[in-house]
Design brief:
Layout lengths: L13 H20 L6 H12 L3 E2 H8 L3 H13 L3 E6 L2 E9 L1 H22 L6 H15 L2
Antiparallel strand pairs: 1-3, 2-3
Length: 146
């Protein structure tokens, strides 16, 4: 008895498709952000700090969706690169506040313009209202998996 089995492979799984798309988007951003000598995850940190400089470590971790131990390593590399500095929180000696350096503040506007361009490039791949639907689906997935 020789039954043919249709193998869809990993392509039928949501996690595979999301991972595949994320890797492509990540590479796209990496290639563009290399000019600033930062990685996409460092961009997320910098953009959060550009919105609210002097964030508490724990709030920054929550805001960018990174656990504390991972964020520590990222901030170590960013501090060595001259992008951020850590300061003690005068209101709570157990806490750290994360600040942008002048270097980051100066490159911030150009970095944000580039990020907006990258987002526009991706958005242009969706006709009509499909992008709004896509973003809504991403938000729903994010809420569902929390």
């Amino acid at each position: 008895m020789n039954k043919e089995v249709a193998l869809d492979g990993p392509n039928k799984y949501i996690c595979y498709k999301l991972s595949k798309v994320m890797r492509k988007v990540q590479r796209y951003y990496e290639a563009s952000l290399v000019h600033f000598e930062i990685t996409p995850v460092q961009f997320y940190v910098l953009s959060a700090l550009l919105s609210s400089d002097g964030m508490k470590f724990k709030d920054l971790a929550k805001g960018v969706g990174i656990d504390g131990s991972t964020l520590t390593g990222i901030l170590d590399r960013m501090a060595r690169g001259g992008f951020v500095e850590r300061r003690d929180d005068p209101e709570d000696r157990r806490s750290l506040l994360i600040y942008l350096t002048e270097k980051s503040k100066e490159m911030g506007p150009d970095m944000m313009k580039l990020a907006e361009k990258l987002d526009r490039d991706i958005k242009e791949q969706f006709p009509g209202a499909e992008f709004a639907t896509f973003m809504k689906v991403l938000d729903q997935l994010s809420e569902t998996t929390d």
